Q: What sequence folds into this?
């Protein structure tokens, strides 16, 4: 199984060096990748259908529990078949659709990356690996939505999609880690047996909610749904593949995968029922008002995802069977409708259904594909959609609570709208009078219309022989989701019953809406007046508010003046140190332990303070430099008095050198200007004195702390014995800590190089101006 | 004496902070030097003050017999003085270069054209 995941990843990276070859002659090999993978999974159908599970374990990061564990069961196989099967159709279609596009190779690199990531996601038996692939699908989706990167709308939509699904990814990761910590394992098949343990844990509801956020963002459930219509900025093959048939179903997959582990609780069922139920109706109604074909399909996709969430929430055997069938039904007809839309867009250069008409005369095979898909979507008898819809109604009617009427009517209402939306997308552009503008359109190449036609016919085929789909696909999928074995028996005909009545009612009402509902730009505008209530609008508002706040905050802190940064840093340090000093208690001074004063020391200190006063108050640059050197000499004298001859020597030399350098370099500079008002000077003086006071107090406090003298004694005792030197300070520097001193020399050498080159640097004429 | 040195240390810090809050680059540099001196004094005070007993042995002995000044703060300060000289000398030369280019000692004149545009 690993190789199926790796195939796409490797070919994807190979497209970088071989881009030119793929753009020209080599493009023919691209569709073979998904087709071969599809065949590989088709060969697994018979063994999985009798209940065999395949597993594969490859250690990756064993210390983190992140291993490449793969497992193929009914649910994984269904998704793997969808990914590679629909993928095959899309690859053939897109090769023709994007022929001659300058980024042709790049497009397929992203698409292959996505396919691998999605395969990895559904095959993972390790929740950490699942998360990695989950994120990879988000990233490849980002690149594909923003594929037309010269269009600012595309870029914006890509960013929206990435931020919503990426955000959901964070929540998902948190939820998965909680699950892993509760149960002590990251392996999904081991989690199944720990259901009781997990559900008994107090963190289980939190993990469930986090998981929900991940699934809802990915599968575009209200209120996170709005990234999906935006994602329609991607080239149509991408919309067909990622944003209707596979990637958006990753959230559904996740919910289905975790149903045996977390499912069945009230939190689980009712959240899914409410969110899914609301989303399916909300989006279905929305789809009726769109004029853009892709927007209609986007909203009906959201609605279909809502139906799946809703069914998983109902959770009964009937509902799960319905879900596992509806996943296939929807993938088949929605991918078809997207592809026919793509053809229309490609040939007629518009997707506006108020303009499009009569195209059946110029592209009959496309019309047949669209018609079959629309019929399947409407759930006409003898289509696979009919069976799917029956099962949904069946699930609603058989729900074991008091609200069966509510659930069923919700489902019926949603489906009524979807019937109309399906007709609008699959039939409307093809019927009626062909306008002159479109009369010159020719039938596109076989590679464009054959894939959608095949998928559409497959939808009819499964409708005629439902037991094939039931036995080989839905049976084991249902078992995987439920966690126990049940029999799925799909039949064309259920007899005359309530479900059939509802189906007929849905069809009739849907057709009536289709006939009387004429979407137009005007109607759309009327709907959009309520946009300020939509989650999309609110999210964008919050987003821009955060940006504004950040700008304001940055401007507040980061104003471009060095002294203002200093001011803030010092105020902050004062508060922090002052607080620490405050809570550390009073200062205990032992006056007897102080060193006695002598007159010459007092003299040095007076000199030092006088120089300090001059340096702060003088207007002359030279005076301040001289005052600074006086301070240095005074400190040097203090070192002399207090037994530090080396320090005194160094300080004296260095201070002399600094002063000479200062005077040599700066004698040309003008006198200090008074650049600040008195008020600011006083403010700064207060802050500065505050800082000085705090540091003095801290020094007093630590003055008589007992300090450890073991290290000093070690150096003192061993200076001669070990290092044969009698000046301990020198011995520390050149012997005990010799390497440090070596690096210090390096620092000085670098500084010297800098000084030398700056002095030697000649100014260019342009700089002089 | 310790009390007096603590006072001096506080004043060195205060003057240093006051100077780095100014707009002049020379004052900024002087302020940094004062802060460095204050810190050296602080480290020096952390060892005990000892008069007339440097950590240097007499010719005749190989181990200290009397009390002697703590050598570790001294070693640290020695390093600090030398390194700060490296920084100061480089800063002085840099300052000269800036002055030659901008013809000003005012830090506010150094803002890049980009930032000035934003200010407008």
A:
């Amino acid at each position: 199984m690993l190789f199926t995941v790796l195939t796409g990843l490797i070919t994807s990276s190979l497209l970088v060096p071989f881009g030119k070859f793929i753009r020209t002659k080599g493009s023919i090999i691209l569709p073979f990748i998904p087709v071969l993978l599809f065949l590989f999974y088709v060969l697994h159908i018979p063994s999985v259908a009798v209940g065999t599970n395949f597993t594969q374990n490859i250690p990756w990061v064993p210390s983190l529990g992140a291993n490449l564990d793969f497992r193929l069961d009914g649910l994984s196989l269904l998704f793997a078949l969808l990914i590679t099967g629909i993928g095959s159709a899309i690859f053939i279609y897109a090769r023709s659709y994007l022929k001659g596009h300058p980024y042709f190779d790049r497009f397929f690199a992203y698409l292959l990356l996505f396919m691998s990531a999605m395969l990895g996601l559904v095959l993972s038996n390790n929740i950490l690996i699942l998360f990695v692939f989950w994120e990879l699908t988000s990233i490849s989706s980002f690149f594909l939505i923003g594929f037309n990167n010269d269009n600012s709308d595309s870029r914006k939509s890509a960013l929206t999609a990435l931020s919503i699904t990426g955000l959901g990814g964070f929540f998902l990761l948190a939820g998965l880690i909680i699950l892993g910590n509760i149960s002590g394992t990251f392996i999904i098949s081991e989690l199944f047996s720990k259901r009781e343990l997990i559900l008994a844990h107090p963190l289980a509801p939190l993990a469930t909610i986090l998981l929900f956020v991940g699934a809802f963002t990915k599968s575009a459930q209200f209120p996170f749904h709005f990234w999906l219509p935006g994602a329609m900025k991607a080239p149509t093959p991408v919309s067909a593949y990622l944003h209707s048939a596979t990637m958006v179903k990753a959230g559904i997959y996740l919910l289905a995968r975790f149903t045996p582990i977390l499912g069945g609780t009230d939190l689980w069922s009712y959240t899914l029922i409410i969110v899914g139920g609301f989303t399916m109706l909300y989006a279905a109604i929305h789809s009726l008002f769109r004029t853009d074909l892709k927007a209609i399909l986007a909203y009906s996709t959201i609605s279909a995802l809502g139906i799946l969430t809703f069914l998983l929430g109902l959770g009964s055997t009937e509902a799960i069977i319905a879900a596992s069938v509806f996943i296939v039904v929807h993938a088949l007809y929605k991918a078809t409708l997207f592809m026919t839309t793509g053809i229309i867009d490609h040939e007629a250069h518009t997707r506006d259904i108020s303009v499009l008409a009569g195209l059946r005369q110029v592209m009959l095979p496309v019309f047949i594909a669209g018609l079959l898909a629309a019929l399947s979507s409407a759930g006409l008898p003898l289509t696979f959609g009919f069976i799917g819809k029956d099962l949904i109604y069946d699930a609603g009617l058989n729900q074991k609570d008091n609200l069966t009427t509510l659930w069923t009517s919700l489902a019926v209402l949603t489906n009524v709208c979807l019937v109309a939306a399906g007709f609008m997308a699959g039939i409307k552009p093809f019927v009626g009078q062909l306008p002159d503008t479109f009369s010159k359109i020719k039938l596109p190449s076989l590679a464009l219309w054959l894939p959608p036609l095949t998928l559409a016919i497959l939808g009819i085929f499964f409708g005629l022989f439902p037991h094939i789909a039931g036995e080989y696909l839905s049976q084991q999928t249902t078992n995987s989701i439920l966690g126990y074995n049940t029999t799925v028996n799909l039949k064309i005909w259920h007899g005359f019953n309530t479900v059939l009545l509802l189906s007929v009612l849905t069809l009739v009402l849907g057709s009536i809406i289709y006939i009387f509902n004429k979407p137009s730009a005007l109607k759309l505008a009327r709907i959009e007046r309520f946009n300020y209530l939509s989650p999309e609008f609110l999210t964008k508002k919050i987003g821009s508010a955060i940006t504004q706040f950040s700008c304001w905050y940055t401007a507040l802190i980061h104003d471009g003046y060095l002294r203002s940064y200093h001011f803030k840093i010092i105020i902050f340090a004062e508060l922090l140190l002052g607080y620490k000093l405050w809570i550390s208690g009073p200062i205990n001074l032992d006056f007897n332990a102080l060193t006695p004063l002598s007159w010459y020391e007092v003299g040095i200190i007076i000199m030092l303070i006088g120089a300090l006063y001059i340096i702060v108050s003088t207007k002359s640059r030279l005076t301040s430099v001289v005052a600074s050197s006086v301070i240095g000499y005074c400190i040097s004298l203090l070192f002399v008095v207090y037994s530090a001859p080396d320090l005194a020597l160094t300080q004296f030399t260095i201070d002399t050198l600094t002063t000479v350098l200062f005077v040599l370099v700066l004698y040309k500079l003008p006198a200090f200007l008074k650049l600040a008002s008195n008020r600011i000077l006083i403010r700064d003086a207060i802050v500065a004195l505050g800082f000085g006071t705090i540091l003095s107090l801290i020094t007093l406090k630590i003055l008589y702390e007992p300090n450890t003298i073991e290290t000093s004694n070690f150096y003192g005792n061993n200076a001669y014995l070990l290092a044969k030197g009698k000046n301990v300070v020198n011995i520390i520097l050149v012997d005990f800590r010799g390497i440090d001193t070596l690096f210090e020399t390096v620092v000085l050498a670098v500084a010297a190089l800098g000084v030398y080159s700056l002095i030697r640097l000649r100014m260019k004429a342009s700089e002089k101006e | 004496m310790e009390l007096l040195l603590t006072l001096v240390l506080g004043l060195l810090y205060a003057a240093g902070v006051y100077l780095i809050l100014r707009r002049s680059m020379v004052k900024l540099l002087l302020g940094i030097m004062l802060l460095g001196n204050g810190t050296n004094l602080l480290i020096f005070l952390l060892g005990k003050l000892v008069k007339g007993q440097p950590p240097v042995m007499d010719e005749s002995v190989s181990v200290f017999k009397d009390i002697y000044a703590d050598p570790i703060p001294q070693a640290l300060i020695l390093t600090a003085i030398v390194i700060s000289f490296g920084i100061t000398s480089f800063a002085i030369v840099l300052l000269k270069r800036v002055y030659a280019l901008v013809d000003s000692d005012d830090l506010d004149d150094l803002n890049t054209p980009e930032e000035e545009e934003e200010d407008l």
Q: What stands out?
A: Chain B has four helices and no strands. The two ends of chain B are 55 Å apart (CA to CA). The first helix of chain B runs from residue 2 to 20.
